[in-house]
Amino acid sequence: MRIAMFVYEFPPKIVGGLGTYAAEVSQQFIRMGHDVTVFTMNNGALLTREAWHGVEIHRPMLVEISDILPALVAEDLRKWGRGIKFFSNIFVYNILIASKLVNDLVKKDGLKFDIISAHDWLSVIAGASVKRELNIPLVLHVHSTEKGRAMNSGSRVVNDIEFYGGQVSDKVVTVSFAMRDELTSLGFSEQKIRVCYNGVDPSKYGPSKVKAKGVDRLVMAMPEVLRKFPNTKLVIVGLGDMQQHLTSLVNSLGLQNSVILRFEFLPEEERILHYAACNVAVFPSLYEPFGIVCTEAMSMGKPVVVGARGTSGLREQIVPSGPEQCGLHVNPNDSSDIAWGIVSLLGDQAAASRFGENARNRVLKYFSLEVMAKGTLTVYEELLGK
After folding, report:
1. Whether 118 and 51 share a structural domain
2. Most CB within 10 Å of its CB: which of 52, 55, 59, 123?
3. Which of 112, 148, 89 is nearest to 2 (CA)?
4. CATH number for the domain including 104?
5. Rounded to an integer, what distance in angstroms lies between the CA atom of residue 309 and that of residue 289?
């Protein structure tokens, strides 16, 4: 089938997990014999059209409307301050990619697309517009929600756009059953929703191949961990808005020699090395629709401690008991519970090794790129009546 993918980020523009997902799933679709055309953002320095690993990419150049936009939009958006430029770019991006597909590729060049794949609120305006113009089925992929990201608050306008997307789409694909439950609680039709887990490349993330996240609670758990295992090192990697808070927390607890802070976006090769070097991977997220970092650690054969409260796809990845156990569930709001999870695995190396082996086997069965792509295509084919 020919798939039009509307996604805010795509290589080389990678902001977070969405860009990585889009890159991996589009290439997997190509390998499985389908055509994929991606419509994504342009930061002003990228080619407007190119081929990348078999994927055709369109990046229309944006025009600036942030000066006039406040006069045209709801009060909610006017409160965004400098963020209004981000919203205006998103709005223009949606209009331009919809026009590009409808007017240039379809009406002018005569191309035909079978399905529209729009990702999050960032691209659903374009998806809905193309669906209306060309009568092409629309699948909305929801990777997270505004209320979830903002911990039950956020922008009313973004909430409304998300809900509108759920109403006009023909199917909604989301990343976990926890997210399915969250979407139905927000009024999305349960009959439309299909769950397709994200995936990783086990051949890349493998022990033999090596060359929001609740982090403050993890730091607070370290004194308790160090009392039993004084040589433990906690390495925190990534970018976010908690850098100053975490630095102050480490200093106030006197953990400068035990907690290593790396506030940077690591290249994939170096990230794999970090997984390989660790004894335990810990992700005590307060809100995590899926959590690809957990799957990456599992694929590397590592036992994992995860936050298992609220909307948590991590809870579905990690089996906490029984013969297929691959890690532990903890309360991400309780630093003592996080410490218990870490200490339990550090104190039983045989169990930790067994959990790591189970974790990789679970990835091979449920969370590979091939499984992810096949599950997604099944939804598309269901919609097309194939």
Report:
1. yes
2. 123
3. 112
4. 3.40.50.2000
5. 11
List, for residues 285-315, the tens digit of each pLDDT value. Answer: 999 999 999 999 999 999 999 999 889 999 9
pLDDT higher than threshold 90 for residue 139:
yes
Alpha-carbon gap, residue 381 to 145, rounded angstroms: 26
32 φ, ψ (degrees, to nearest 5): -90, 10
Q: Verify cis geometry, omega within 30 degrees of 0, for the bond prior to 12.
A: yes
3-state secondary structure of 49: strand
Question: What is the DSSP track for 75-109?
Answer: HHHHTTTTHHHHHHHHHHHHHHHHHIIIIIIIIIT
Q: How many domains does the chain have?
A: 2
Please give the residue range of the domain that contains residue 221. 207-366
Residue 233 is encoded by which pair of tokens? Answer: 């090192």
In this prediction, residue 6 has a pLDDT band, given cuts at 50, 70 and 90, of: very high
Same domain for 77 and 182?
A: yes
Residues 278 and 212 in one domain: yes
- Convert the pLDDT of each residue in 329-340 to its tens digit: 999 999 999 999
Considering the domain architecture, whether residues 102 and 240 belong to the same structural domain is answered as no
Distance CA 339, CA 222 (A): 7
